[in-house]
Design a protein that fits this description.
8-stranded mixed β-sheet; 5 helices; 5-stranded antiparallel β-sheet
Length: 331
């Protein structure tokens, strides 16, 4: 019966757990106790390929949220998402029909679709050349920020770790899969649910990004592995492919050019516009800094079967451009 009837708020508090129905009823009860117009809302997530107005059946709704109507605006509050602020709408319900309680009737509204940049994973490195002349490394600071669904997914994974494993989890977050990194002084700048961004920072030493030949220094600026950048296996695939979520992924590296060094090669970068979104990377000299920036922005998750080969080719071209090295020469 609990598949259809919510637990009472008292029971959710007793168990310290609730599914979408129990959590939504608890949130509605707390808001109404404070005088707000809060209402239970049935909704079908993106897992259901049809809408309530198309097929009028209980099968059209597989989720419950709480809608807050305040000063003429509706806020769609998903109580099963613990780490997102009031204004953000989870991607799983964006664009879906919401059936909001209204006495003996109901109100049907279409939930807004947010821009893909509302869910962002951004990683900034600021670094310099350090070490002995024949054994140079990149040393500096890394700052990683998440918003929207990216914030929810990362903080959920982080808090699911045992407390003893959380520090190691944070170290991997700044180093990726690179075992040549030394990461230290990792700390949260902010991570509260009410804040738009969760921000983590630490110091980083990369021991493998610099190769030296005579007086030339070949430096890799793409310093972290990416999400969703692996090609799709087409050998046995007969169906379309869906990327995990609409989002924006940014990798940004700033390298200070040391005194006595000259930039002798700066790659051109690339910009690819595909039906699914954009793949971009650029290398620019600004004053005495080299700035590398790469962006993957996914605006449409679905890749049709006939478009997968083109998507894989775009990923390859993008990766090749991102893996190019700048060359500094000692004067």
């Amino acid at each position: 019966i609990l598949g259809h009837r919510p637990d009472t708020p008292a029971e959710v508090l007793r168990k310290r757990y609730g599914d979408c129905k129990g959590m939504s009823l608890l949130l509605r009860t707390l808001l109404k106790a404070q005088g707000f117009d809060a209402r239970l809302t049935d909704i079908g997530t993106i897992d259901i390929p049809y809408r309530m107005s198309e097929i009028a059946t209980l099968a059209s709704a597989n989720h419950m949220i709480c809608s807050l109507i305040y000063q003429g605006k509706t806020y769609y509050l998903d109580a099963t998402n613990e780490y997102i602020p009031l204004e953000f709408i989870p991607g799983s319900i964006q664009g879906r029909e919401a059936m909001i309680e209204n006495g003996e009737e109901c109100i049907v509204q279409t939930v807004p679709i947010l821009d893909s940049s509302a869910s962002t994973d951004s990683l900034y490195y600021t670094c310099t050349l350090s070490g002995e002349q024949t054994d140079r490394v990149l040393q500096g600071r890394a700052t990683r920020s998440w918003s929207g669904d990216m914030k929810e997914f990362f903080l959920t994974a982080y808090h699911k770790n045992d407390k003893s494993d959380r520090e190691e989890h944070l170290l991997r977050t700044l180093a990726g899969n690179n075992h040549n990194y030394q990461v230290g002084s990792v700390k949260w700048i902010q991570q509260e649910p009410q804040q738009q961004w969760a921000i983590l920072a630490g110091t980083v030493i990369n021991n493998s990004a610099v190769q030296i030949a005579d007086s030339e220094f070949y430096i890799e600026l793409d310093l972290h592995n990416d999400l969703f950048d692996q090609p799709i296996d087409t050998l046995k695939r007969i169906h379309d492919y869906e990327l995990p979520l609409r989002c924006r992924i940014v990798r940004h590296t700033e390298l200070e050019i040391p005194a006595g060094y000259t930039l002798v090669h700066c790659p051109k970068g690339i910009a690819i516009h595909a039906p699914q979104g954009t793949l971009h990377c650029s290398y620019n000299k600004q004053g005495e800094k080299i700035i590398f920036r790469k962006v993957m922005e996914i605006k449409e998750k679905l890749i049709h079967r006939n478009d997968i080969v083109a998507w894989n080719e775009n990923l390859r071209k993008w990766a090749d451009a991102c893996n190019e090295q700048i060359i500094l020469k000692k004067q």
